[in-house]
């Protein structure tokens, strides 16, 4: 079924032998609603590890969504790589590049939040990946720390983006869908409104907020409460969380977490933002000081930059 439905480039990657004849599974890595990922090793090599993503055939569309992205991104360094496909009667198994250091969520759980310099380097790589997807008419729809894999031992910040099961190709048809991870949902997802590339950009804003504070901007006591907070889009920057965060970081978040999708800046424009282009010296200089910056000044900064980025938006 995968072989007949998958993009042509991947038909040659469908294995002609059984999975068990080549690989041994060693441990579970992660479980999701539509798949399970297990660590595996080649039988003829004790140190050649891979990640085996197993998707039940009843979720075939999610498998095909992933294959489309793998087809597009096979030469891009910001994406996890696909090596082989096993097309079984009841499931598909993707043999993927193994990220031995796990995902970014594990680091957040250990450290609470990231230093801004670390957050910048990670955010830049994710933005490059998202820009690539958008240029190829694909929306990811599930950007979050769990889908950002660490390729080297922390504090190395080399990452790759993964999990494209919810991704969609944007066409002229109206795309309406309620899917994703609650804390990272955009208002148009919650309200069942048309999705666009800007839907990913909202999630990028939430991601940055989470990376530098360890907290989500709209988290509630329940999923419904969180969705209500998202729909209202009341964005707050508590002093206890942001007193040491640079003004440029806050400004980028303000340009991404915007209720009206067309007013969010794009991935390409975000890559030119002063925060993404900053170094540690400029971060220190722009450190946010609530005692010296009132709300009017903050609003002026965001409005000024918004106009600048909208003029350059493409």
From TrEMBL:
The organism's taxonomic lineage, starting at the top: Eukaryota, Metazoa, Spiralia, Gnathifera, Rotifera
Keywords tagged on the record: ATP-binding, Kinase, Nucleotide-binding, Serine/threonine-protein kinase, Transferase
UniProt GO molecular function: ATP binding; protein serine/threonine kinase activity
One GO BP annotation of this record: intracellular signal transduction
Pfam families: Pkinase (PF00069)
GO CC terms of this entry: nucleus
Biological source species: Rotaria sordida
Protein name: Protein kinase domain-containing protein
Domain of life: Eukaryota
């Amino acid at each position: 079924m995968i072989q007949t439905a998958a993009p042509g480039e991947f038909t040659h990657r469908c294995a002609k032998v059984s999975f068990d004849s080549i690989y041994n599974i060693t441990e579970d890595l992660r479980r999701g609603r539509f798949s399970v990922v297990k660590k595996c090793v080649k039988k003829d090599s004790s140190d050649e590890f891979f990640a085996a993503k197993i998707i039940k055939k009843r979720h075939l569309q999610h498998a095909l969504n992933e294959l489309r992205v793998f087809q597009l991104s096979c030469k891009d360094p910001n994406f996890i790589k696909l090596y082989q496909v096993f097309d079984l009667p009841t499931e598909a198994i993707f043999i993927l590049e193994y990220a031995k250091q796990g995902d970014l969520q594990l680091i957040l759980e250990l450290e609470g939040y990231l230093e801004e310099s670390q957050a910048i380097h990670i955010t830049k790589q994710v933005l490059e990946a998202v820009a690539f997807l958008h240029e190829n008419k694909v929306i990811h729809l599930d950007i979050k720390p769990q889908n950002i894999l660490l390729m080297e031992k922390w504090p190395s910040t080399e990452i790759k983006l993964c999990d494209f099961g919810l991704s969609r190709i944007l066409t002229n048809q109206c795309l309406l869908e309620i899917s994703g991870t609650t804390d990272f949902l955009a208002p148009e997802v919650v309200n069942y409104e048309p999705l666009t590339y800007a839907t990913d950009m909202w999630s990028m804003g939430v991601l940055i907020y989470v990376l530098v504070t360890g907290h989500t901007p709209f988290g509630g006591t329940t999923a419904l409460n969180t969705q209500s907070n998202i729909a209202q889009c009341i964005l707050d920057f508590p002093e206890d969380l942001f007193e040491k965060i640079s003004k440029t970081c806050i400004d980028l978040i303000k340009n991404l977490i915007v209720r009206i999708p067309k007013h969010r800046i794009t991935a390409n424009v975000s890559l030119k933002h002063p925060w993404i282009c900053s170094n540690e010296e400029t971060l220190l200089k722009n450190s946010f000081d609530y005692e010296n910056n009132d709300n009017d000044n903050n609003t002026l900064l965001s409005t000024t930059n918004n106009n600048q980025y909208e003029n350059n938006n493409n």
